[in-house]
């Protein structure tokens, strides 16, 4: 977490209390694509990367989430890129840190999504550390959690 940030970066924390990351991530990525932006999804390990790859192919809503993953050809053509590294071959403006993945910054970064499951103690601790890091770098993060009706923002 030692990388510097642009002051225009938006940081949102998405606390998964009712669903898992495999259910929530497709919906969040769908909103990014609907806004005509690109995303990099950084996973904590290759096992999660493979599980999310499958979840994006099987997602019912949105129906189509075109993506590629680390090690595949033509990454620059993928609107969504899954990785365990710091690679950003698709020139994404949105970075998703999933279930405890480490933070990194790069010049084109505009928005960070910290997505973490409630039962994952390591991911919750990582999110707390990132929250403080962003506040220390003059970025006011937002916090979202799930309730029975959907996402709610805590003020």
Automatic annotation (TrEMBL):
Q: Pfam families per the record?
A: DNA_pol3_chi
Q: Which GO terms describe its molecular function?
A: DNA binding; DNA-directed DNA polymerase activity
Q: Which GO terms describe its biological process?
A: DNA replication; positive regulation of DNA-templated DNA replication initiation
Concerning Gene3D superfamilies, the annotation shows: DNA polymerase III subunit chi (3.40.50.10110)
Name listed for the protein in its UniProt record: DNA polymerase III chi subunit, HolC
Species in which this protein is naturally found:
Entomobacter blattae
């Amino acid at each position: 977490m030692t990388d510097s940030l642009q002051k225009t970066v938006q940081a949102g924390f998405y606390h998964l209390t009712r669903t898992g990351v495999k259910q929530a991530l497709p919906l969040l990525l769908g909103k990014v694509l609907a806004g005509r932006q690109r995303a990099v999804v950084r996973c904590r390990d290759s096992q999660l990367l493979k599980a999310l790859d499958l979840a994006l192919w099987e997602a019912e809503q949105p129906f189509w989430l075109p993506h590629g993953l680390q090690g595949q050809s033509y990454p620059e053509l993928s609107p969504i890129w899954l990785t365990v590294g710091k690679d950003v071959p698709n020139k994404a403006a949105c970075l998703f840190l999933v279930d405890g993945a480490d933070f990194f910054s790069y010049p084109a970064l505009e928005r960070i999504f910290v997505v973490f499951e409630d039962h994952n103690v390591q991911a919750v601790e990582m999110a707390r550390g990132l929250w403080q890091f962003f506040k220390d770098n003059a970025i006011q993060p937002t916090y979202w959690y799930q309730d029975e009706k959907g996402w709610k923002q805590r003020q």
